[in-house]
Amino acid sequence: METSAAAPDFLPSEITQESVEAALKSDKGSEAHLVSFTVHEFTQKGDHYATLVARVNVNYSLYEKDHSVSYVVKYNPKHFKAFEKFTYVLFKKEALFYQHLVQHIQSQLHELGQTPLRVPKCFHTSLAENQEVIFLEDLRPRGFKMFDRKKGMDVAHTKLVLEELARLHAASYLLKAKIPDLAKKYPILNLDWLNYADDAREKTYETFTKQMDIVKDMLSKVGGYEVTENWLSRNKERVLEILDNQLERVPPFDVLCHGDCWNNNMLFRYNDKGVPVEVMLLDLQMCRQASLATDLNYLFHTSLEGHVRKTNLEIFLDIYYSVFLGVTQAGGTAMPFTQLELRQEYRNRLEYGLLMALLVTVIVICEGDVNKEDQEGFSESIKDILDQLVATSPILRPRFLSIFDEMVENGIFE
Length: 414
Description:
Blueprint: H1 17-28, E1 33-41, E2 52-62, E3 65-75, H2 84-111, E4 122-126, E5 133-137, E6 144-146, H3 155-175, H4 182-185, H5 200-222, H6 226-235, H7 239-246, E7 254-257, E8 266-270, E9 276-281, E10 288-291, H8 292-303, H9 306-330, H10 339-348, H11 350-365, H12 375-389, H13 396-409
């Protein structure tokens, strides 16, 4: 039986017959025989920056019966030219997560009688040059859908994400009894904003300071945000110091973090009434050892509208604490921090939430229409689009300006 590939109009060079066969046999067993496959663009503009994503539909035979299956494939980690070195490190981090880290976490949860961490199954990875791929379970046939990134998540969606983050964090905390330091065992976890390449500090400084200038100019057009403008002006030169301090590993909050946990990087399944009942965490390319509060601040300041975040903050932190406590109790380990200590640690990492919002939330407001070819073009396209949206964007105030209001209330801008 011959094997055929996709039509030549869309067949990325990274997605080969050999890689499809490897994923198929990993998924369905060594007796599965690849008959044919087609490759299709999977996401819309703005859905992904670190990699490109395709859907691979596979026809195969198994025990003389014909079957079909689909996979989601991440590939070409160097396509975002403005941040090529950074995104390539992120791709390698995500491959590490699926090759090793998730097995550690799932094993830990299994020992405690807990539900497995809700992430897609991975069937094949390759880091060979120009053949970089990650083959993942296609969750859409199971009813999972992407949340509209322009909408802030409500309490029901946020609750599901917090529960899953707490299980990831708590399992990694308990894992220290077996592996005291995941970042020592897997050194790539140490690569981050400030050290991913020889010129990392220079590139990161340029990225954040340009973004701070763009936001400062935008706020001057909006009016009424002089305190925020002053903070951005004063802290431009120390942005690397802020990042360094915010990502410092401080026990007992030092855990394996998702690192990029916003509503573009998760899928939800709904019941017949449209209520979210399950979440899947995706895109763990920025996983790192850091304070659990960096994940919480990232989530709250990129994925929630201000009124949801502000009015439910205590409830959200209590939900997170309760699930973390449940995992540690199942492991026969004392809870490493109190609810008051969790609240204080969350406040201690507010600046990280702010800096991430300057990047991520701005892109959401700009609807993904940004230049990916070079860093200068990226910043200029952000500025041009943001200038046009100041007076017209319906999500500017609830998703973005509300963050600055709360930073003032919390004393961050003093």
